[in-house]
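Request: Have a read of the protein record below and say how the chain folds.
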Amino acid sequence: MTWILTASGKTLDFLNPVPEQIDILDIAQGLSNECRFSGQCKVFYSVAQHSVLASQVVQDQKYALEALLHDASEAYLKDIPKPLKELLPDYRAIEARLQAVIRRKFGLPEQESDAVKRVDLKLLATERRDLMPEHDADWEILRGIQKLPQPIRAVHAGIAQAQFVRRYLQLTQ
């Protein structure tokens, strides 16, 4: 068996995903229940909240929908920390295939835009400051990355889910 059952009652086949298997409500459900940083942050902070923030603070709002959905595959696959993901080439291939289907479903460019990559790093730096324990280790990927001036306050998963759906509707209607 290479598929999962989603909250909407659909199935998603990891080896052969197709756009008809993708549902924005499943994405909102999965991302709102998925904690960033393998759950190692000070409080529960969902990938859905991270995605909503990305869509709000991306420099050019023409990238807002792409920013909202930049981690959408994690609704189905889980948010695996980058250091571990680098050790899992099969996982990365499955993730890339699923993300390509999601991008096609929502009319996004095939490759992630530089604007979205930049906002993702800005949020990562801000999340480290606001949501992770103090630690002296240098995160090389964050060198020279500016943080948001305002702190991030984590919200409940249900609130993050509603915010995600609301933001999606704002951007698509």
Q: What stands out?
A: Residues 3-172 form a domain with the Hypothetical protein af1432 fold (CATH 1.10.3210.10). Helices lie at 24-32, 47-57, 64-68, 74-77, 82-85, 89-105, 114-131, 157-172. Residues 114-131 form the longest helix (18 residues).
